[in-house]
Amino acid sequence: MAMWAGRFKKEESKDVNDFNSSISFDSRMFEQDILGSIAHATMLGHQNIISKADSELICKTLGEILEDIKCGKLLFDYDAEDIHMFVEAELTKRIGEVGKRLHTSRSRNDQVALDIRLYLRDEIKNIKDLTLNLINVILNLADKNKETIMPGYTHLQRAQPITFANHLLAYATMLARDIERLDDTNKRLNRNPLGSCALAGTTYNIDREMVASLLHMDSVTPNTLDGVSDRDFCVELASAIAIMQMHLSRFSEEIIMWSSWEFKFIDLDDAYSTGSSIMPQKKNPDIAELVRGKTGRVYGNLITLLTMLKGIPLAYNKDMQEDKQAIFDSVDTIKDCLKIFAPMLETMSVNKDNMKKAAAKGFINATDLADYLVKKGMAFRTAYKISGTLVAVCIDKNTTLEELPLEEYKKLSDLFEDDLYEAIDLRNATFKRTSQGASSIESTAKQIADLKKELGL
Question: Most buried in the list 111, 241, 251, 270, measured by CB within 10 Å?
């Protein structure tokens, strides 16, 4: 029998019950639901809203229910509408009338708002831990490749020489920002909505701050209507996850390219690759491709949440039940991607020679040639034009800037001397970039050290 049976004369249709039910997906919040109820019951007893004996019995029994679910002794009843009603029904089944006192000065509206906040708070920590592990893998890989020269690209055209370390550190920096976004989301998420009740608060002398303290929350939501209808934190988390997933997707795209025969900068470990059903020579970067592919569903979840919220008036509406599957899927997806991404990177081989050979082609030291003239007093735009002309000469003569004779240089400027070959040497062009955040050995070492300090790694 539904809890609202006193108002209704007819039983709810089974089809309606199935359509309305959320226990199939909100049952994952059982621990948060029970811990929230324990905090609520403790407060009710402390405030003498119910007797201390009843409060203690409720808390004790809820603890037993929690342990029984965790060990598999108590299974979910999927005929229950949601996890809240399942727990309350089980509590009443065990201790009778006393169990019915738990819902005093509480609605499912503020109860579910609390549960999802507590659940996502826990998941933010899990996502952070996985992200920190991935960053640590990237930093270790970067540390081993501070002298590995590769071409840097713009427009997917070879542009300037960099190190593989500096390229990797770009992704470590992105992920560090992702952690900042998770932390910032948690600031607004970690507030207690319980006590908002259905929408208007309660006439009972409750202590919302006490409940917040028991649940290690920073504060309470200041407005009761907003307390039950706010899902901004779901949107914020979905957005933070979408941005992180986008970063992983960009990284995946490069891994896919780097592992192709056209680049062959890296070799993925066999354990993180797949083969072909018809072409025996194939070694496919399926893991990276799946990470890239899953980005679309994470974006979709963000749009689902924004669209679900955009047209509903205050306060709670049943539309808001649709928040859970969207945000749960985003959480699950990013965790799965982070779990598989770290070992995929950790086990891949770096083909340093192929990277260096690629860097030796494409005139990627042309900017260094222009800088050479600038340091001798020439205006940059003039130097830029001369460097471009010399690249065209090299293309016509099928040679490189390093191999072009000095007399060809002097045809365009008397500032060129023998020392120009040192200035455009690939190693010098890479490691003399000593500005903060650049590719020199010292700079990449500092980036690694700074990230480790910032993130506590």
Answer: 241
